[in-house]
Task: inverse folding
């Protein structure tokens, strides 16, 4: 069985960094609240010439910004953790089902120094596909790269983020990296893989959309007459992206 490779070690993945940030600010808020509670508000009010009530309100407000930042970061970390686990699962399934001349990279870290990782990159003989996995259920639809999940015949709810915009943006990041390494004419494109959803009208999506990992395998292995098939070429592309030093087995 092929391994799923990645350029971001499990301990340094984005959700863990965001989680640490959230814990820091939440702890900071708790410390500020404890300090405010411990202060002698009457003495402080007398010293600065304000009412004890006003001082109490001000001290009560001091920890709120830190709490707000911390709680938002913790909520984001939970979303990112779920997305990270989905990327691991989809990457592993693709690695198991794709032919031996394909290389699967999970949690690719582009060289633009942005915090966001690319969930899954598939390097094949015909080029590079950036996979955007999504786990929403129900029926999904797209209108000019704005995505919605139907909740009834007449109602729908917007998805968190636009998967097509994210896939297209991540493809551009990977394209920039591979061009820097000399592979200027290598095709790089994005595809969305919904693992649970039923695909509705997605004709206005700017990237292709498939409804399962099996469908993704079919899409990824389609023949492209423009590019000569070569397993060595796929390995060279993968090495150019992550290199022998940054290569790590994904958890």
Result:
């Amino acid at each position: 069985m092929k391994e799923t490779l990645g350029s971001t070690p499990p301990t340094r993945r984005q959700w863990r960094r965001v989680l640490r940030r959230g814990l820091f600010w939440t702890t900071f808020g708790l410390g500020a609240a404890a300090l405010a509670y411990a202060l002698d508000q009457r003495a402080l009010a007398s010293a600065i010439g304000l009412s004890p009530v006003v001082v109490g309100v001000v001290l009560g407000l001091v920890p709120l910004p830190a709490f707000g930042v911390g709680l938002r970061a913790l909520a984001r970390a939970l979303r990112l953790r779920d997305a990270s686990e989905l990327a691991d699962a989809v990457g592993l399934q693709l690695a198991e089902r794709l032919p031996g001349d394909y290389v699967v990279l999970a949690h690719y870290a582009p060289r633009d120094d942005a915090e966001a990782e690319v969930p899954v990159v598939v390097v094949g003989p015909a080029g590079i596909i950036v996979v955007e996995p999504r786990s929403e259920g129900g029926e999904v639809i797209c209108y000019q790269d704005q995505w919605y999940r139907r909740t009834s015949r007449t109602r729908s709810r917007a998805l968190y983020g636009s998967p097509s915009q994210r896939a297209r943006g991540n493809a551009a990041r990977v394209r920039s990296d591979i061009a820097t390494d000399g592979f200027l004419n290598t095709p790089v494109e994005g595809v969305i893989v919904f693992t649970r959803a039923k695909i509705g009208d997605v004709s206005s999506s700017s990237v292709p959309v498939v409804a399962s990992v099996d469908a993704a395998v079919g899409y990824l292995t389609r023949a492209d007459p423009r590019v000569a098939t070569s397993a060595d070429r796929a390995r060279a592309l993968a090495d150019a992206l992550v290199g022998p030093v940054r290569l790590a087995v994904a958890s």
User: Anything to note?
Assistant: Residues 5-249 form one domain. The chain has a mean pLDDT of 83. DSSP finds seven helices and eleven strands in the chain. The first helix runs from residue 14 to 38.
